[in-house]
Write a structure and sequence with these properties.
single chain, mainly alpha, Growth Hormone, Chain: A, 0% strand
Length: 424
């Protein structure tokens, strides 16, 4: 841990970005648990829960290509600040969802919140190499994953307790405050990325139509870049392969907690424990794997392989879970897999993609994994509500998909384990 603490101590800018992530992620888990609990009370149907996750994922898919253009054209620090402020205002609207006929408002506000998140995430990923040195990228990404995971574990437990004992309104207010505090930390970062909009300020725009046309051209430029280099395209799809599996878990964890393993009749507390187990796996998994394999090209590719294996093993464990303890253990293993996949796929792209295209590539990656996650989420909700499948049967179907995806990755890994050359 000394390596990670050293980065925080000597890099003030990264430290502020890290603090922003800490408070924002903490609020996010309060929000998810409160939203899931509210839907369980107002509806309880599997498809209603699926719609919650679709409202979180689909805006990311639709907006991500344009968000990538924004991240490459405009100053990324300012984008982070404004999206945090707008998300805070949006989350306050959740306080008006207080009866079944207003559940549509929860979906609309969730979608709006994640429209802003679609801008925030690729901008942050593209901004990180400007905040830390290249040799610190793996450390920064591993710490970022550990932070997300720790806040998942802590936030899930606190969110479960807050929602169970103080109500969903308290959780929503805390989430809004977390976004404002995150924005304040970002204002303290001294590094400003130079967007092309500043460079082109002397050239007047010919109106909204020409601006939209330029945006589409820039999106296509990023796509052409990836299409011309299939290996980089494959790296940009690593998360998408994983989310095709773990998307279904998001839906199934709720009936698993509410109906199969409730604690004292309270599924919210069980759900908090589930998210805490995910946080432990995603937090410590990348750190341990990085310690064992290092930061070399071969080590990072092996790490992704380990991530896919662990994800598959965890999903199989969930399908067979006979008790709450078994379920939490399998969830932790699954979390190790997803955390390792997330960290090392991000580092590979940050190292290989040139800065002028980095925002659009991360936006494509974001769009791809939100699309596959949405497909997986919708499938799980449909199978649970309309096909009469049990939670265990749906987990088995996810495990089969995970085995196929892991096999495809291993075939690709054997082709690129000796580092190919890339054009930049």
């Amino acid at each position: 841990m000394k390596l990670y603490l050293s980065l925080l101590q000597r890099n003030r800018n990264f430290r502020n970005l890290w603090f922003a992530r800490v408070v924002s992620n903490l609020g996010d888990w309060f929000n998810l648990l409160a939203s899931a609990s509210l839907i369980a009370v107002l509806s309880g149907a599997g498809t209603a829960i699926s719609f919650l996750f679709l409202a979180r994922f689909l805006p990311l898919f639709v907006m991500s290509p344009f968000a990538g253009v924004l991240a490459d054209r405009f100053e990324r620090r300012s984008l982070l600040i404004w999206t945090d402020v707008l998300r805070a205002l949006t989350v306050l609207g959740f306080l008006f969802v207080d009866r079944p006929e207003r559940i549509w408002l929860l979906y609309v506000l969730t979608a709006l919140q994640f429209v802003f998140s679609a801008v925030f995430s690729p901008a942050e990923q593209a901004y990180l190499p400007a905040v830390v040195d290249k040799q610190d990228l793996v450390t920064a990404n591993a710490l970022d994953s550990f932070t997300w995971s720790t806040m998942l574990a802590i936030g899930a437990l606190l969110g479960g307790l807050a929602t169970a004992f103080f109500g969903v309104q308290t959780a929503f207010i805390l989430d809004a405050l977390s976004f404002l505090l995150s924005a304040w930390f970002v204002t303290r970062i001294a590094v400003r990325s130079r967007g092309r909009a500043h460079e082109e300020s002397a050239q007047p725009l010919e109106g909204a139509q020409s601006a939209a046309g330029a945006a589409f051209l820039e999106i296509f430029e990023g796509m052409r870049y990836l299409w011309a280099q299939p290996v980089l395209l494959a790296f940009a799809l690593i998360k998408a392969g994983g989310s095709l599996v773990w998307g279904s878990v998001n839906v199934l964890e709720i009936p698993l907690a509410e109906q199969i393993f409730p604690l004292n009749g309270n599924g919210t507390l069980t759900l908090g424990l589930l998210y805490a187990a995910v946080g432990i796996g995603t937090g410590f998994g990348p750190i341990v794997v990085r310690h064992l394999l290092g930061d070399t090209w071969g080590g990072m590719l092996k790490a992704v392989s380990i991530g896919y294996f662990a994800m598959t093993l965890g999903i199989l464990g969930l399908a067979l879970a006979p008790s709450l303890g078994w379920m939490l253990g399998a969830t932790t293993v699954r979390g190790v897999g997803t955390g390792v996949i997330w960290v090392f796929s991000a580092v590979l792209l940050q190292i290989l993609i040139p800065d002028r295209l980095r925002g659009r590539v991360f936006a494509f990656e974001f769009a791809a994994f939100t699309l596959t996650q949405s497909i997986s989420t919708l499938w799980a909700g449909y199978a649970y509500d309309n096909l009469g499948w049990s939670v265990s049967q749906i987990f088995f179907s996810a495990a089969v998909a995970s085995i196929v995806i892991t096999g495809a990755w291993l075939i690709f890994y054997l082709r690129v384990r000796s580092r190919p050359k890339f054009a930049t």
